[in-house]
Specification:
Blueprint (H helix, E strand, L loop, with lengths): L27 H70 L8 E9 L5 E8 L11 E6 L2 E4 L7 H8 L1
Antiparallel strand pairs: 1-2, 2-3, 3-4
Length: 166
């Protein structure tokens, strides 16, 4: 076993923690320790690099399916919004076709709902000129499929259906 307090060059005593001898030569022991520390640092750097690479790989492996699902979900939402916009436009045309003066029709509070069976219902209010040419006031309506129901038609379940659907 090598005595760590003795210089391997001249045999003199090493002083302090600097591993220096009176002959001015650094001890081989210090060189070995420094080499070991350097090697340990290299291995630590390699280990940390591998861990980081594994973490990044795992992140992308895990997130890729979620990103695809998110994009598909966003595309579905956009298609539904387009369908609802089309449904509102179609509902306005259906309602206008039942009015005396379709050009005077003003719509407000349009809402689109999708039923459990996938059927789209558009609810809203319309104000148009009556037979005397005056605005009659806003009247509630519902368009389900290609048929429409007005509040003034006196359907017995209109208000119940309005409260449920709209």
């Amino acid at each position: 076993m090598v005595d760590t307090n003795v210089c391997l060059n001249c045999g003199g005593n090493l002083t302090g923690s600097g591993f220096m001898c009176a002959c001015g030569v650094r001890d081989e022991y210090e060189k070995i320790v420094l080499r070991q520390k350097s090697t340990e640092r290299k291995w630590a750097a390699i280990f940390l690099t591998l861990v980081a690479a594994a973490g990044v790989s795992a992140y992308f492996w895990y997130m890729q399916p979620h990103k695809v699902a998110y994009r598909e979900h966003q595309a579905l939402i956009e298609r539904q919004a387009e369908m609802e916009d089309d449904a509102e436009s179609n509902a306005m045309l259906i309602v206008q076709s039942r009015l005396r003066d379709a050009g005077s029709a003003r719509f407000q509070n349009l809402r689109t709902r999708r039923g459990m069976n996938g059927e789209i219902t558009v609810c809203g209010e319309v104000n148009a000129n009556n037979a005397f040419g005056a605005k009659a006031g806003f009247e509630k309506f519902m368009v389900v499929g290609s048929g429409s129901v007005f509040e003034s038609e006196g359907a017995t379940d209109f208000y119940q259906r309005w409260a449920t659907v709209c």
